[in-house]
Amino acid sequence: MHTRAYLALCLSLLIIFTPALFRAPAKANDPLKEVSLVIDIAKRNLTILNNGQPWRTYPVAVGMAATPTPVGEWAIIQKDRDWGGGFGTRWLRINVPWGIYGIHGTNKPSSIGAAASAGCIRLQNRDIEEIYRLVRVGTRVHIVGPLAKTRVTSPQSMGQSGQDVQQLQLALRERGFAPGFLDGRFGEATRAAVAHLQRHYGLTVNGRADDNVLILLGLRR
Amino acid sequence: MFKRVGIFILIALLIGAGLYHRRPPRTEDYLVDPTARLDPALHYRITVWIALPVIATAEAYRSDILQVLADFSALEGSITVETLFVADHLLKERLAAALAAGTPPDLVLDTAEAQINYGELQLPLGRYLTKLEKENYSPSSLAQASFRGAQLGLPVGFSPRVFLASTGVLQTAGLSLENIILHGWTWEQFLQSVAASTSKARPGLVLTNVGTPLLQTLAASLGTPSPWDSEGRLNWGEETLLALATIGHQLARTQSGAEPSSATENALALFLNGKAALIGPLNPPLTTWLHHEARARKLTLSVLPVPSLQGGAFTDMRAVNLIAFRQRSRQRPDHERMVAELAKYVAPELGQVLGEHLSFIPPHATSTPRTDIPWQSEGEAATNMAFALRTPYRLGGEGAEKMADWEAALEPLWLSLMKGELSPTDFSQQAHSVLEQLGP
Are strands A62-63 and A72-81 parallel, antiparallel or unpaired? Predict the structure, then answer.
């Protein structure tokens, strides 16, 4: 009788705990939630954020003074591998509207940590391979660095893109209007922010960054 | 038989009386009981929603408002005020949702909205004030806070529309700024000064808006800010519409001679670079911005009220109000009294905060800004606008209701008028028939 009860108890415990025995052990600090990348131009490093918290940091090479890395809030729009040469083993393109920029590997590992690229972010091949596995198309990439303020020469409207639009987005954000990401693309969020500013100042609300909007934001005199 | 009928009638009467007492009270006959006993054993929790505009001093604005509310809590002891700051462009929608759910906050201050009547769940505050307390408010502000004879809100600030003129414009037209400030002026005088300051090289006037906000300002200057009165009768007959259209047409024609909208989109640069002598209508944020910008460019400007038809009668001087609500599930008279006490205490103090941060004009005598600064000096726009308040100007009629509806309906016609595609007569006839179809 005792033996039967003992066997029944063991069987029950086995049924309860078997799934746990076969579950893969969790990796320490495994990024299971929202992944985004922050690249700090001054510190020359790339940090993976896991749900907004720093998870792992890698050294990078950034653009030279004449070909600066584009500061802004971007997204990955393409994942590719084995381009070879200066691009190394992996390529992650970001959605900068005024050129082709990406995060990639290298065939010059000694350049990592320097301002050496034509504007792209360069990493050791093993590092970019790890990052490649963790990100997807759409992952946000925030490139932090000085964003020189310049005058905007002409009115901006829905559908336009470029550095003038990014200047507009920056100025809107600094004054408390929410233009969406600083990605140089005049989309719905930027239009809504411009309309909000026009309503606030009692101007004609057309969602277009006309001369009045540019002068109010200090982008034109 | 008669006994049975009698019992039936008695039951019917009892049911009827019960239903009568359970009916939701109408706003205008629902009153706060100023004698309701505040229970010392109770802790009152009052929720307040405040519109948060996009301003450089948003943090200081927020902290000043919290301080005003905290002062009352400290005084009363038995209350906690929970304050929620909501972006000003989202507050209207959020409040509508809360009202539909029957759970509005106790108090709301929407600085972007002149609406005064919110229906069933609104708690009228006017009759809670004593006669003496009412006398401390500008009569124009109290008039704007009333609807169908009941004073619903407590005025907190005036948001006037004004024009700015370069110094010398009025002298050229033979007008005295002091007279205008003290006695008002007419559209005829306004157009006369525009004409006098117009040259081939420099247009007299640039408009900041040629759409329905301009129509709204013109309507206010005629003493009829809303197409309908509070009883639903049409305020804007063909004659009024023709007067509005004639002024709008004249303003559009005097503006730089170009397509109205292109000059309007460049209005600030034209004015600041000396290529236009007058600019408007301007709301307080834009007036303040232009004042600061003009000072940086060493320009001297004069703040002018919006003219009226007869002069000194009406102007566009909208009041914003503190509005109180009761929730469907919480209608204790003592809670409502506490809300009213809080509103009464903070309204003048909030007026001061709005004056400081938004350049609104306080409507309360105790918070009127200093008047010792000469209005011609380089003083702040708010001070200058405060002088405009001392003219006999006021916003005519009752607060504009359902503005968004009539604006959307009239906008295409108004823009056609401003572009010169419609004559003032055609506009007045077509707009009249649109309004008749739309109804209040």
Answer: unpaired
Domain map (residue ranges) of chain A: 35-144, 163-216
C-alpha–C-alpha distance, residues B135 and B403, integer Å: 29
Out of A2, A10, A104, A196, pick the active-site residue: A104
pLDDT score for B192: 87
3-state secondary structure of B50: strand
With beta carbons less than 8 A apart as the criterion, state whether B94 and B86 touch. Answer: yes
Q: What is the least distance, in Å, from the CA of A167 to any CA of chain B?
A: 19
Quick check: helix, strand or coil at residue A47? Answer: strand
Contacts of A155 in chain B (CB under 8 A): 265
What is the overall mean pLDDT for chain B? 80
- Report the DSSP beta bridge partners of residue B157: B320
State pLDDT tens for residues B15-53.
655 544 444 444 444 566 767 777 777 889 999 999 999
Residue type, B227: P
Chain B residues 266-285 with CB within 8 Å of chain A: 266-269, 272-273, 281-283, 285
d(CA B143, CA B205): 32
Q: Which of B58, B265, B286 sits opposite A211 (nearest CB)?
A: B265
Three-class SS state of B59: helix
Which of B92, B265, B273 to mutate to test binding with chain A, by most A CBs within 10 Å of its CB? B265
Q: Is A151 near chain B, with CB under 8 Å?
A: no
Mean pLDDT for the stretch of residues B245-263: 78
- pLDDT at site A75: 97
For residue A104, indicate whether it is catalytic: yes
Q: pLDDT tens for residues A116-172?
A: 999 999 999 999 999 999 999 999 999 999 987 888 989 999 999 999 999 999 999
Whether the CB of A30 is below 8 Å from some CB of chain B: the reply is no
User: Which residues does B298 contact at the CB level (< 8 Å), separation at least 6?
Assistant: none
* Separation in Å, CA of A221 to nearest CA in chain B: 7
Partners of residue B89 in chain A, C-beta under 8 Å = 196, 199
B398 has a pLDDT exceeding 50: no
pTM of the entire predicted model: 0.81
Confidence of residue B396 (pLDDT cuts 50, 70, 90): very low
First to last CA, chain A: 96
- Listed by start position, the domains of chain B span 27-159+319-367, 162-315+396-438
CATH number, span A35-144: 2.40.440.10
Distance from CA of B121 to the nearest CA of A (A): 29
Answer whether B27-159+319-367 and B162-315+396-438 agree in fold.
yes
Q: In chain A, which residue's Cα lies nearest the Cα of B161?
A: A202
Instruction: Mark yes or no for CB contact B58/A196 under 8 Å.
Output: no
Q: Within 10 A of A45 (CB to CB), how many other CB atoms are there?
A: 18
Domain B162-315+396-438 of CATH type 3.40.190.10: yes
Q: What's the CATH superfamily of B27-159+319-367? A: Periplasmic binding protein-like II (3.40.190.10)
Name the residue of chain A whose CA is nearest to B283's CA. A202
Residue B149 burial (C-beta neighbours within 10 Å; 0-12, 13-18, 19+): exposed
Here the ipTM equals 0.80
A200 in active site: no
Span A32-59, pLDDT tens digits: 578 999 999 999 999 999 999 999 999 9
Q: What is the mean pLDDT of residues B240-254?
A: 93
Given CB atoms, is A177 within the 8 Å cutoff of chain B?
A: yes
Measured CA to CA, the distance from residue B411 to residue B212 in angstroms comes to 6
Distance (Å) from the alpha carbon of B209 to chain A's nearest alpha carbon = 5
